[in-house]
Amino acid sequence: MSEHPREPDVVVRLADITKSFLGVPVLRGVDLELRAGEVHALVGENGAGKSTLLKVLAGVHRPDSGRVEVNGEPVVLATPRDAREAGIAIIHQEFTLLEHRTVAENVHLGREPVRRGRVDRRKMEADTRGLLDLLGEGGIDPTTTVTRLSVAQKQVVEIVKALSTDPRVLAMDEPTAALADHEVGLLHGLVDRLRAKGIAILYVSHRMREVFDLSERITVLKDGAFVTCALTAELTPDRLVRHMVGRSLDARHPDRATPDDLGDVRLALRGAGNDRVRDLTFELRAGEVVGIAGLQGSGRSAIARAICGVEPFTTGALEVDGVVRRVTDPRAAVRLGIGYVTEDRKGEGLALRQSIRDNALLVRRAAFTGRRGRERADLAALLGSVAVVSRGEHQEVRYLSGGNQQKVVLAKWLAVGPRVLVVDEPTRGVDVGAKQAVHRLLRDLARGGVAILMISSELPELIGMSDRVLVVHEGAIAGELPAGAAEEAVMGLATGHGAGEVA
Amino acid sequence: MSAPTTWRPRLAEGAAPVLAVLAVLLVALAFAGPAYSEAAGYLALLKRAAPLVLLAVGQYFVVVSGGFDLSVGSLVTAEVVVAARLVDGRESATGWVIALLLGFGLLVGLVNGLVTTKLLVPSFIATLGMLLVLDGAVFLWTGGAPRGALSSSFRVFGRGGVDLPVLGHLPWSVAILLAVLVAAVLFLRGGTGRTLVAVGDNENAVRLAGGRVDRLKVLAFALSGLLAALAAILLGGFAGVSAQVGSGLEFRAITAVVLGGVVLGGGRGSVVAAAAGALTLEALFSLLNLLGVTGAPESAIQGVIIIAAVAYAARGGGRRLGSRLRAGPPDPVRG
Lengths: 503, 335
Known about the structure:
Chain B: It is found in: Cell membrane. Chain B: Its main location: membrane. The complex is a heterodimer of chains A (about 500) and B (about 325). Chain A folds into two domains: about 10-245, Rossmann fold, CATH 3.40.50.300; about 260-350 and about 415-495, P-loop containing nucleotide triphosphate hydrolases (Rossmann fold). Helices cover about 35% and strands about 25% of the residues of chain A. Chain A has 18 helices and 22 strands. In chain A, the strands form five sheets. In chain A, strands 6-9-10-3-11-12 form a six-stranded mixed β-sheet, with helices on both faces. Chain B has about 325 residues and is an all-alpha fold. Chain B is built from 14 helices and two strands; from the N terminus they run H-H-H-H-H-H-E-E-H-H-H-H-H-H-H-H. In chain B, helix 4 (about 95-115) runs antiparallel to helix 5. The longest helix of chain B has 27 residues, at about 215-240. Chain B is globular. The interface between A and B is large, with 48 and 38 residues.
């Protein structure tokens, strides 16, 4: 990529790292080597040990055995501070920003420059502005409070915060998980600029396309063990997936609905709106999967939240099975047979410290008190049908992988036999194998007569799964595209051009 | 899934440490005092502990759903003082006064719950306010010295008992205690009980699942108020009428719940363990009594216990032990 050939100078080397929790091995002899100026992708299914490895690098977890070398010198990373001093910066998947402080304050948190015994705000803001300009993100004002920023902008602030320590290694844990497609492009530009500065970048992602677009080398983990480290150019997505899961996955999505599969109109919106979305008019039939595409903040999730009564519609009408209904709270929606798989699984979808059983029965118990009985018998069948892998129905859901957690969320709705299922980012943070399982499950449900409204920021998934796609732009539906539409057509509508124009 | 084979007594979740401590204390009691050389001594302990156990069960409902109830101590005092004044020694008044007391406890709980859920006052503050209101009201009403007296039929619940064929003498308070505990366990096994615990864990998830979060929280406070009224009825008979009868009981109940391994903030812990916590606390104080320690040190010891129990839970002591017990077949690498 760069003009002059680079020396493969190794900045960080982890060798034969092992780590167990409660006697359960999480890392079993993992090697990782990061070179200056390379983007190194770290991939593996959920539970493969990626996050643990990252935390070893961050000084959060101490390995049980193995060597850590920085610039060829053996070091001990016992605390996050050690890691920072060794020039390692980590951007975690969850934001670590203080929402009510300014961008500059967040960037310098705990390391505020001091002048005459007082925090030197001017220097803090100037430094931050310098870094933002360097990243080509001059549009963010260092004096704005973080609450006012979009998700993508927050991600930029996280990166600036990491860069402010002048690191030689930058590790990013699924940095695009919360970003819309066009924002992902911006992030990639940014990563390229960092690479050009000679920073070694460790990039953890589930998204194949990103891994192949960005990285020079890929390290694959499986079940805590090192599988391979290969040049990206020598791999194909298919071979990479085989390394990750140990088998070849059929990359196709399940078959779409045929006209025979379509039944009655389950859900209809007639000019519905609230302060986030307006003039929504569409129908959802039994047996079909309708996708909603749109940029982050376009109102695509607001549609889901309105239908499900979280932030209800204030104008227009909502019909369920042809009858106009008032859905003023989630309970009303649930009792009408509308299920909602939220995009925030941990914050809204699951009671993490409760058992699989209690979560799977949550909707039935919470919304349909009175209709009891048969719990024990159906539960096993239910959990079997979504293929949850666990140690038993009394295991707490927080110990499950993302994919299995999502299956529990689905089971929770299946337990009450919904007529309409609204799913927002159903495969976020879910590994490749479980992703396909979720897709199949959704399609099976549709075939069983459920009407499914699906939101996803991952266009290949959305297009691959949907029987038609509604594209949302600035709170209104910009257009409808048939099954198998091109990504360019979707993006065109989503960004406010026409479907014909290529974005 | 190996679903049917993995049943474990979830309602005793986290109870192991407190039960171990309780067992040690009970054995120590036998060595410390001659009264505990036979079963009657332990029965007397259970009888003495009954009001605190009831308060701990009530407090459990509130804590596990994510709140605090600081008003129960003052509520107990108010109930006892009101009872003495209204009954005023008349046997005929016993029935309706007891009904009134239970109703009043329920009402105070409802107000606590509604202030928390509808006025959005954090429960810590809402029930602290209620504590002060009740304290003030009692003082205003009695002028500092409670008047009147309880009837003997009222006092029988705290003092008396029934002679059963096989079991022998069973104090009413112990019978009530057992009935409440069984009812609490059954309630918590049911859908509403499980949902209440889920509210303490993640109320957003319960709300989006169609649950009535506010109603469940109000229910927890109402149960706490009702059980405080019941505790007051036992305590009035057992300890007599004074303006200090309930003082400090709210903290004692919270200590008991925490000692039982119930997590402050909600979502985790068992009611049986909370009850065991109350019994442990009472056994500890009995032991200290036998050893000649009374008064001020009790409160200091209680302070140390509550900090130590929360620290133990926060540092993962309970969790580690819990997950080890839960971890299924032992892993060969473990060591």
